[in-house]
Specification:
The structure is a single chain. By secondary structure, the chain is α/β, with parallel strands linked by helices. The protein has a single domain (about 5-40, about 75-160), classed as 3-Layer(aba) Sandwich (Rossmann fold), CATH 3.40.50.620. The protein is about 35% helix and about 25% strand. The protein is built from six helices and seven strands, in the order βαββαβαβαβααβ. It has a five-stranded parallel beta sheet with strand order 5-2-1-6-7, with helices on both faces. It has a two-stranded antiparallel ribbon with strand order 3-4. α4 (about 110-120) packs across α6 (about 145-150). The longest helix has 16 residues, at about 80-95. The chain is globular and about 40 Å long. The two termini are about 35 Å apart.
């Protein structure tokens, strides 16, 4: 095991995920590849009920609302300087532990980009957090973790978020 892919989403689980990945990398003499996916924001015209289905066109058949015409503009969500700073800090801390670390920042659908990065670096393991969202959240929004688990051909180690 030489390459560990660690998706970063700034959730409560992220520090635990990074700590566990660091311990594994140190013990296995592996390198860490941090990946933070910048999601695309899609602008949609309002539906007939006055509400757009931006980001959730798959709900249109269920809701009975006609699918709005999309404005073909998909822009990355603006970068947050605090998040950029935190990514750099985690990268420094991992490097100071004597572990080779690389940061990847692709733009696109989260689960798909995580899997693409896994393929690109030929990851031996994906270490990622779970959020403990309820079923309704996962139905409406989906889960990157669920998408990675469902489609990954690589082992995935899940780290639960701390309980509130």
């Amino acid at each position: 095991m030489k390459r560990i892919l660690v998706p970063i989403d700034f959730s409560d689980a992220t520090p635990l995920v990074i700590d566990l990945a660091r311990q594994l990398a140190k013990g296995l003499d592996a390198e860490i590849h941090l990946v933070h996916v910048r999601e695309l924001s899609v602008v949609a015209a309002p539906g007939t009920l006055g509400y757009g289905l931006a980001g959730m066109p798959e709900l249109a058949p269920v809701s009975g609302v006609p699918v709005p015409v999309f404005d073909a503009m998909a822009d990355p969500v603006p970068e947050d300087q605090e998040q950029k700073s935190k990514l750099a800090q985690w990268q420094r801390e991992i490097a100071q532990a004597g572990i080779k670390v690389t940061l990847h920042e692709p733009t696109g659908a989260v689960a798909e980009e995580i899997l693409n990065q896994g393929d690109a670096i030929n990851a031996d393991l994906i270490v990622m957090g779970t959020h403990g969202h309820d079923a309704m959240y996962n139905l409406l929004v989906g889960s990157a973790t669920k998408g990675v688990l469902k489609h990954s051909t690589r082992p995935v180690l899940l780290v639960p978020a701390p309980r509130a």
